[in-house]
């Protein structure tokens, strides 16, 4: 049993705080993908909800606890999905939400944050600049800073996915998880290691944003000077030490994948599963694509964690000659 | 309370026979669609399952009852979704499935029927020719003929969607339903009229395949000589009298929509909800698009009933100049 910062009792309690629209999401085998991948593929779909990503599970817990405590404001940095989810959860509970994002974040995500009534502040630089600015805003205004993956609500909210996987009737022996800040990976990983320890937990980052993968391998925080990936949802440079500690306890492996594999994963999901996904959500399949031998004959579960993508880019990535062959 | 052929007690019992992978599907408000439609839009998503349509709900009931009765074979005519679902349900219960389809049916659907191990027979002509051939096969072989919309399992299976809508926490005052053979419309309609009679039930057919709509308006069966629509899943010519009787009891209105509205609906669902849908699944939104005034300010629920579509055609329909404006 891993001694992470997470607690399975609290994870079960979190389910009571989360709007049911985010819970008990589809989990189904997608056989049409399998001839291309050489293993059984089971999809946990986190996109069929009002914010089109799994982040609502965590923000529901945060906003619920804030409202109960009479706190009326919160700020976060976000590549887009956390901000959108926090805007949704805050709006229903009368909590003012400020989101700080990089000017270069995905337009579709920024538009939705604004539409949901949050205050959106754009900064130059990347997601790490947004994190700094959000922290400074929170300090100056004396309001709650929500830090993705560091704050336990985000991890334990995401962990409810793990609980649903463990309680499904679908058998699987491997789970492949997108690894960004670490909330999804440590959350789902914690539950699996505690309740289904036979399942191998494989986390996946883009080669163009490998800081947490490198950190996991060297068992110490490694930062990078820049990121270069289309997987905007997982492109961090400064891993959080406490999250790395948890990841070391729950991940059996952390692998890195190429951009073309991420695109190939998106293409497969579109053409053989009928799913529009954002690049981060294709990381799991990308890992299988890059190492079919490793996964051959296994039953893999992957979390399709978001579908907030600029459609023009998605169309570019998934069309063309390769699409006809995929 | 409508005196249809359906029974709410049996509908609840049907839920016990259906693999949970087809039940309790996502139902969520999709605000990003709303500025384009002028009403609240709530999506009941029936595509995130192993056969990518709602038809599994009915075929699970059929295959379950057949297996219990020791019957090992069944044949059906299908435009593709029923056949795929029956193939899936039969396979898990050792029931041999034969599907008869038109040679011009959607390739993606036919491929999946074969992949699921069913015997597929293709006939010249349209869906009505397939229905004739399936009936003759069943007679000659002495096996069960499953007739979509006529056989109560298909209606009562689909009706479980209605039960889930009624038991959700999301408020809605109008439901717009694709109308093909009538199983979905009479199933969901029956439950709504019995348990939520304040909800207006609007059924939608394509102008190019209007037989059941015309029949509903004239209160007698009207057939057509041909069909001409991209909505392959709802393109029948010979309405079933018993189904028409039920439809007369549960539908408040039946409207007809143009092909360009169906395409506009698919485009909106792709670009603003991130959903790939087959043409039939866009009929509900097409009805709103054609009569915004009628639905203005309402809260509409629509069943996204399938996503089995040839992706090249989908790409053609949803791309181009209009997509950038939608």
TrEMBL record, chains A, B:
Keywords: Lyase, Pyridoxal phosphate. One of its GO terms (biological process) is isoleucine biosynthetic process. InterPro entries: Ser/Thr_Dehydratase, TrpB-like_PALP, TrpB-like_PALP_sf. Residues 22-306 form the Tryptophan synthase beta chain-like PALP domain. The keyword Lyase applies. Its cofactor is pyridoxal 5'-phosphate. GO terms for molecular function: L-serine ammonia-lyase activity; threonine deaminase activity. It holds the Pfam family PALP. SUPFAM superfamilies: Tryptophan synthase beta subunit-like PLP-dependent enzymes. This is Threonine dehydratase. It comes from Streptomyces albidoflavus.
């Amino acid at each position: 049993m891993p001694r992470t910062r997470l607690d399975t009792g609290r994870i079960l309690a979190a389910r009571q705080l989360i709007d049911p629209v985010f819970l008990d999401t589809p989990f189904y085998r997608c056989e049409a993908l399998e001839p291309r991948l050489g293993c059984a593929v089971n999809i946990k779909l986190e996109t069929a909800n009002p914010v089109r990503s799994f982040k609502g599970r965590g923000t529901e817990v945060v906003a619920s606890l804030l409202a109960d405590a009479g706190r009326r404001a919160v700020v976060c940095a976000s590549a887009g999905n956390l901000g959108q989810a926090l805007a949704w959860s805050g709006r229903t509970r009368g909590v003012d939400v400020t989101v700080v994002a990089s000017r270069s974040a995905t337009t579709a995500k920024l538009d939705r944050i604004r539409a949901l009534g949050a205050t959106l502040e754009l900064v130059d630089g990347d997601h790490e600049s947004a994190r700094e600015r959000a922290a400074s805003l929170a300090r100056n205004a004396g309001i709650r800073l929500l830090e993705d993956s560091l704050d336990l609500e985000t991890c334990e909210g995401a962990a409810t996915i793990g609980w649903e996987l463990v309680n499904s009737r679908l058998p699987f022996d491997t789970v492949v998880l997108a690894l960004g800040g670490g909330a999804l990976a440590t959350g789902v990983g914690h539950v699996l290691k505690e309740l289904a320890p036979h399942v191998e937990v494989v986390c996946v980052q883009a080669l163009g944003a490998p800081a947490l993968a490198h950190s996991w391998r060297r068992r110490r925080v490694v930062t990078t000077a820049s990121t270069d990936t289309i997987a905007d949802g997982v492109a961090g440079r400064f891993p959080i030490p406490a999250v790395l500690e948890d990841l070391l306890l729950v991940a059996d492996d952390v692998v890195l994948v190429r951009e073309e594999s991420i695109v190939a994963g998106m293409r497969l999901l579109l053409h053989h599963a009928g799913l529009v996904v954002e690049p981060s959500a294709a990381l799991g399949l990308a890992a299988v694509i890059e190492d079919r031998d490793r996964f051959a004959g296994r039953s893999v579960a992957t979390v399709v964690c978001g579908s907030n993508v600029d459609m023009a880019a998605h169309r570019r990535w998934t069309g063309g000659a390769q699409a006809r062959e995929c």
